[in-house]
Design a protein that fits this description.
The complex is a heterodimer of chains A (280) and B (348). Chain A is mainly alpha-helical. Chain A has twelve helices and two strands; from the N terminus they run αββααααααααααα. Chain A starts with a helix and ends in a 13-residue tail after the last helix. With 348 residues, chain B is an alpha/beta fold. Helices cover 47% and strands 17% of the residues of chain B. Classes of the chains: A mainly alpha (280), B alpha/beta (348). Chains A and B meet through helix 3 and helix 11 of A and helix 3 and helix 15 of B.
Chain lengths: 280, 348
């Protein structure tokens, strides 16, 4: 179907209005709040950011957490997607349903469930007590936060990997085998490189979602598990330092965009990236 | 011409009387005041004991909202879009809000016409509605017959082993640390911040979780996640009634006050003050305090209660004697730097 330019614009208008009014405008407000003091333009909040040990430490922990959760999700998600790509389409549909099942339950409830499982008198520790072991402090640690986040983000990574794997022409793998490559060599030299676009897409989506997590660290984490969203919450609700909260939010936005930029640069030369992954 | 004049006069008179009618109605029937509180089961008791009788008596309707939030008050007053006519506030929040100019002056000739309220309950911009305590709560089944009684016991991880919890806030925790370190109750303020943090260092690694709200510390204790925690006294009474193995010690508790205040620019300040008067009605307050043991200074209320019950309240003389008055003014003046230090202390 060929649409004229005005028709396209008209069709895009509702979405553009929505994004502009309820997303871009408030973001511009937050960005300006971060450089606006009582006497007009000021860089004081920025100085506060770079002078604040807490903010820098929390930013560092946020990125470490996001990286580690992304790595775990890819390590678990890639083999799962590989397994699914080998199934018949009927079986694959069923497995996809199973993977999407957790999306029907709210993140809050799934997170609270981990409290029941990982708590001091939870299922895991009761099992340990039954074999005579001391209870483990899992809940309220970074380990619990990672478990909770991986459980929420894993389906997204699996589906992103799967989408790119299904796009791979399996005849290429067969050709490699016919030409004498071992199973492992065929996977490593043909299948793996072709599936990397999905890995990249899944990884970057997972990473960016991690940066904005709030509920899971707040409920499952201990005092060291504070990440940037929790720190913003403290500034908004407890110290009422909204200027600093805005700077933190801006710092998160800028560093997320920077990650996206680096990702674009790295994947630019990969032909067909845009077409693979979620595109097709 | 005369006809026309008469007609226009008639129209004018009719619209004038219509305007007078609607103005009269607005003053009596159509006013709804928005009262912001803590919500939950408390809100139901407040509706039954205070709001419904108030509406019956004055014709002014009450809409309850929740939760209590100083940032929301700030946002409302600063944007000029004030939804609340009355809101609950903690002691140090009142001090902050009053200094920032977010609260209206209260006319005590409306709230307390017979001048019965003690001076302690009457701030220029806030009325003390309730008093509660942050005290030490513990599991009675975890320490083999003994029980922690003081903050020094709370700090003693050898005599009373196991995880404990404290609120994720410097407020009152600094005081508890100083009490555990041997500072007498009447010598707490101004707080020795360095000494308090040094004492808190000792307990830091025995506190896996720092609670954020009243529901959470109850859950931590009941689930067995911790063996003891700081807590609000009113949250433990219902657990004891359910025969849960928990108890509290008043020793070294922080006696705190909670207030009602009118946001600057509220639409119905006069009706809000009338409602304040209802909130300190002795008979209704006596019923209320049986449900929520946060008495405040309502004149004539204690006389309506059983002495055995009064003894379980935070303001009962023998309980009040072992507690300290939480220094809301000190906290309002020092919160920002101490909160920053607290955030940093927790993270590293």
């Amino acid at each position: 179907m060929n649409l004229t330019r005005p028709a396209i614009l008209l069709l895009l208008l509702p979405a553009l209005l929505l994004v502009g009014l309820v997303f871009l405008l408030p973001i511009a407000g937050v960005l300006s709040l971060s450089v606006h003091g009582e006497a007009g333009f000021t860089l004081e909040p920025l100085r506060e950011l770079f002078g604040s040990k807490v903010a820098l430490l929390v930013l560092e922990r946020t990125f470490t957490l996001a990286l580690s959760v992304t790595a775990i999700c890819l390590a678990l998600g890639y083999p799962a997607a590989l397994f699914m790509s080998g199934l018949s389409s009927r079986a694959r549909a069923w497995v996809t349903y199973l993977i999407l099942l957790p999306f029907w339950i709210s993140i809050l409830i799934r997170t609270y469930t981990w409290i029941v499982i990982l708590g001091r008198e939870g299922i895991v520790n009761r099992g340990l007590a039954a074999v005579g072991a001391e209870p483990l402090q899992i809940l309220y640690t970074d380990v619990a936060v990672r478990i909770g986040m991986v459980q929420i983000l894993l389906p997204i990574v699996i589906l992103a990997c799967l989408a790119s794997m299904l796009d791979i022409d399996r005849d290429l793998v067969k050709a490699a085998r016919v030409l004498g490559a071992s199973r492992w060599a065929a996977f490593r030299k043909v299948f793996l490189p072709l599936s990397l676009s999905g890995v990249a897409t899944g990884g970057i989506i997972c990473f960016i979602l991690c940066l904005g997590f709030y509920v899971t660290p707040a409920l499952l984490g201990g005092r060291r598990s504070t990440i940037i969203a929790n720190l913003i919450d403290i500034q908004v609700h407890r110290t009422l330092n909204w200027g600093f909260a805005a700077v933190l939010a801006s710092a998160l936005l800028v560093s997320t965009l920077a990650c996206l930029g680096i990702f674009r640069l790295l994947t630019r030369r990969r032909a067909g990236f845009a077409a693979a992954g979620f595109g097709k | 011409m005369a006809n026309l004049t008469r007609r226009s006069f008639n129209i004018g008179a009719a619209s004038a009387s219509l305007a007078a009618l609607s103005a009269g109605q607005a003053a009596a029937d159509d006013v709804t005041i928005v009262v912001n509180g803590s919500g939950g089961s408390l809100a139901e008791a407040i509706k039954r004991l205070f709001e419904d009788p108030f509406t019956t008596a004055t014709g002014v309707k009450v809409q309850a909202t929740a939760p209590v939030s100083l940032p929301k008050l700030k946002a409302m007053v600063e944007s000029g879009n004030v939804e609340w006519d009355l809101t609950e506030l903690n002691g140090d929040d009142v001090a902050l809000a009053a200094e920032a100019g977010w609260l209206e002056e209260i006319d005590y000739s409306i709230v307390d016409p017979e001048n019965k309220l003690p001076e302690i309950a009457k701030l220029p911009t806030a009325l003390c509605r309730a008093s509660y305590s942050t005290v030490l709560a513990y599991r009675t089944d975890r320490f083999g017959g003994t029980a922690p009684k003081t903050w020094a016991d709370f700090w003693d991880v050898n005599a009373f082993p196991g995880p404990r919890s404290l609120q994720n806030s410097p407020k009152a925790n600094l005081e508890f640390a100083l009490i555990a370190d041997g500072v007498p109750l009447d010598k707490l303020y101004p707080l020795d911040i360095d000494r308090a943090f040094a004492k808190l260092d000792e307990i830091k690694d025995h506190v896996p979780v720092w609670w954020e709200n009243g529901a959470q510390h109850v859950q931590l204790l009941v689930d067995g996640e911790v063996n003891m925690t700081s807590c609000w006294n009113g949250r433990i009474t219902p657990l004891k009634n359910e025969a849960k193995p928990v108890d509290i010690s008043w020793d070294g508790g922080a006696l705190m006050l909670s207030y009602l205040g009118i946001p600057k620019g509220a639409k119905h300040p006069k009706e809000a003050m009338l409602f304040m008067k209802f909130r300190i009605d002795p008979a209704a307050s006596a019923e209320f305090v049986k449900l929520v043991p946060y008495p405040g200074f309502v004149p004539g209320m204690m006389e309506l209660l059983e002495p055995e019950f009064v003894a379980t309240l935070p303001t009962a003389p023998e309980n009040a004697a072992v507690q300290f008055r939480f220094g809301a003014d000190w906290w309002a003046a020092n919160l920002a730097p101490v909160q920053d230090r607290w955030n940093e202390w927790l993270l590293v």
